[in-house]
Design a protein that fits this description.
417 residues, alpha+beta, 5-stranded mixed β-sheet, two-stranded antiparallel sheet, 12 helices, 9 strands, 12% strand
Length: 417
């Protein structure tokens, strides 16, 4: 088992260099030419170390795992790096001596590199699982090419064949390990960048809201005052109801400004117990005129035992935004199903289901991001604040959608026991 020990030593050397790159260079160099040069140099050093500490099967056959840095360098860095590493292997093997192993190295690289270069562009455009599959297939192809040329040049023996099979299996496992590791590291870095970008956008929103909040509130308060003056005793009950809803909506808009100012800095307050069904009935009355103007029918089913701790104004703010989005997703009209029911896991479920244009998985994943909206004139702020409100209530949202079929928002909030 000395061969396995030698392979593990080579693996350790490659691992050290890969972690050195990701820890000290990748996030600092920001994907520029310097990063490619550093990465190519580290791959080259890995190859030299692997070839220097190769395992000797017998007096004329030696094996190493140079394929790992060669393959990863070609696929992740580019074709130029692949050609550079191939030339480095040939030159170093020439330095070690001209023998059958030297010719085997040249023939194997000439056989394998065209496939590496062909799949490199496909690899770059592929997603995580596809990248891992391509890397594994190419590593097997390289090993089989080396095994074939070795058998042609030197002949075959059972012992050599057994060691080469162990070599192939070891390389496939190592390539799978490193490819998965690199893909996971890239995902973590991408998520961190997205979080930093979102935090910066939220900061910009907070700054802009602070600047314009005063100017927005002044006309709102003036409008609210005139609506109160219009609320005379001789008005019909219907007109009084419309005025009341208008004043409530102005108050809600003012609360939205407060939420934007406080976004990212949620204040923990005592939320009173509220009955969700009554709040939904109120929201249904508020949104009904808007729905009818767009030829949308709202069908509602409420259970009256859905009690939660929440600020009713903030809950309404979140739900009315989701309802308006559902209505606007049906340009030709349709039906919205609005339901509320207790769940057996200690939550209540509020469901808003429409027959709208639907969303793709990528669009669903981006919902709630600042400045991301499916509407041409949308800012994405409404959905961002709505989801934040639900999170502040210790709730969660599940979104199921299908293109040209519709979308269902399922909101789960802790039920009062």
């Amino acid at each position: 088992m000395n061969e396995i020990k030698d392979f593990l030593l080579q693996l350790a050397l490659i691992t050290i260099l890969i972690f050195t790159y990701h820890i000290f260079f990748e996030e600092k160099s920001k994907r520029n030419k310097i990063e490619k040069i550093i990465a190519s140099a580290l791959c080259g050093l890995s190859i030299l170390l692997c070839m220097s500490f190769r395992t000797n099967v017998n007096s004329y056959i030696s094996l190493d795992i140079r394929i790992v840095p060669l393959l990863l360098g070609t696929l992740y860095i580019g074709t130029r790096t692949g050609l550079f590493l191939s030339a480095l292997i040939i030159l170093y093997r020439l330095f070690l001596g001209i023998d059958l192993g030297f010719y085997n190295t040249i023939l194997t690289i000439l056989t394998a590199m065209p496939a590496f270069l062909f799949f490199q562009k496909i690899f770059v455009k592929g997603k995580k699982n596809k990248r891992i599959q391509i890397a594994l297939i190419l590593s097997i192809y390289y090993c089989l090419a080396g095994l074939t040329w070795s058998s042609i040049l030197r002949g075959a023996s059972l012992k050599v064949f057994q060691v080469q099979i162990i070599h192939l299996i070891f390389i496939v496992v190592v390539v799978w390990f490193f490819t998965s590791l690199i893909e996971n590291i890239k995902e973590i870095i991408l998520k961190n960048q997205q979080l930093q970008s979102e935090a910066e956008r939220v900061r910009v929103i907070s700054d802009l809201t602070s600047v314009f909040a005063h100017e927005i509130r002044n006309p709102m308060q003036i409008t609210r005052g005139f609506l109160q003056l219009l609320n005379q005793p001789e008005l019909s009950d219907k007109m009084k109801e419309y005025i009341k809803y208008s004043i409530d909506e102005i108050d809600r808009a003012n609360a939205i400004i407060n939420d934007l100012l406080a976004f990212g800095k949620p204040i923990t307050t005592e939320n009173p117990p509220i009955e969700v069904a009554s709040e939904l009935r109120r929201l249904e009355n508020i949104i009904q005129t808007y729905a009818l103007s767009r030829n949308v029918e709202i069908k509602a089913v409420y259970h009256d035992d859905c009690w939660i701790h929440a600020n009713p104004q903030k809950l309404n703010q979140s739900l009315i935004n989701i309802l308006k989005n559902a209505i606007e997703s049906m340009p030709n009209g349709g039906t919205i199903w609005l339901t509320c029911a207790p769940k057996i896991d200690g939550f209540i479920e509020i469901s808003v289901k429409d027959q709208g244009i639907g969303m793709t998985k990528d669009q669903i994943d981006k919902l709630g991001s600042p400045f991301y909206s499916l509407k041409e004139s949308g800012t994405g702020l409404g959905m961002m604040v709505s989801l934040q409100i639900i999170r502040n209530l210790q709730g969660k949202v599940q979104i199921n959608s299908e293109k040209d079929v519709g979308t269902e928002f399922s909101i789960y909030l802790p039920q009062i026991s």
